[in-house]
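Practice problem 4.
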């Protein structure tokens, strides 16, 4: 049985041991997402400086494939707009982020990664920074369209209006909405189907069960951060396999699990995982 965690980080705590824990309870496939530059002690002054981050992440994903099937997602985290902006100015930060997205697109085109991550701040920023963030997000969608990949999104908390606004930005860029993945999604399966974007449901509480009751158009994630300062946050690496298996106890069959952990994943990312 294929069990996929759609969004996980490996940082400075368990590292690859987290994937061994994931595998011990039935996990088989994982999408590993790079972190912000400062997590790698990289302080970029130009987009090309993200190369060190991406290369180190891809090396990690290569090592991860010795344990489970792992795929690389290259992140230009939307919080970089303020992390970098406080040092070099917000306009310059946006330029760096756009150039880094171009670089990430090249890695995807070369087959080194399967998706990029972008978005907009989940915290309050002024209108100028918000507009710059939307401009960076639009560019991310342009890159995704050009190389034919999916975009994982880190955004503000779910609202219908907010997600529709993002969907409209994606449409203007010409990217297919089914390749726009809302990371850290609530189990709003019907709403996301109406909007056209694809939800990656955070596997805490009864979210997976509530999602399954609405349909099968979703994926599942832990957003495990692997930070020594926050061990177990956001959810531990064993969470997705356990929550997926609980569906069987609630009367759902393996066909549903195959749909959300395999078929949806292959469709969204344009890859074969079996």
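Answer key:
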């Amino acid at each position: 049985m294929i069990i996929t965690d759609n969004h996980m980080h490996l940082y400075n705590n368990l590292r690859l041991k987290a994937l061994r824990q994931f595998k011990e309870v039935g996990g088989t496939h994982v999408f590993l997402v790079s972190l912000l530059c400062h997590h790698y002690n990289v302080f970029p002054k130009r987009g090309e400086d993200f190369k060190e981050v991406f290369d180190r992440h891809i090396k990690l994903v290569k090592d991860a494939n010795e344990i489970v099937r792992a795929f690389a997602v290259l992140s230009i985290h939307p919080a970089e707009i303020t992390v970098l902006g406080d040092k070099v100015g917000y306009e310059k930060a946006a330029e760096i982020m756009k150039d880094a997205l171009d670089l990430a697109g090249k890695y995807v085109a070369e087959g080194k990664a399967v998706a990029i991550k972008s978005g907009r701040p989940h915290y309050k920023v002024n209108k100028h920074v918000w507009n710059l963030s939307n401009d960076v997000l639009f560019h991310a969608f342009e890159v995704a369209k050009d190389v034919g990949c999916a975009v994982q999104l880190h955004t503000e908390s779910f609202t219908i209006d907010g997600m529709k606004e993002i969907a409209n930005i994606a449409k203007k860029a010409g990217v297919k909405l089914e390749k726009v993945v809302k990371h850290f999604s609530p189990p709003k399966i019907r709403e996301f189907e109406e909007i056209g974007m694809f939800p990656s449901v955070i596997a805490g509480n009864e979210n997976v069960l509530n999602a399954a009751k609405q349909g099968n158009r979703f994926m599942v994630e832990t957003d495990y951060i692997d930070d020594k300062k926050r061990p177990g946050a956001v959810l531990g690496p064993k969470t997705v396999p356990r929550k997926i298996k609980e569906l069987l106890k609630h009367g759902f069959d393996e066909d549903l699990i195959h749909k959300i952990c395999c078929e949806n994943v292959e469709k969204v990312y344009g890859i074969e995982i079996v």
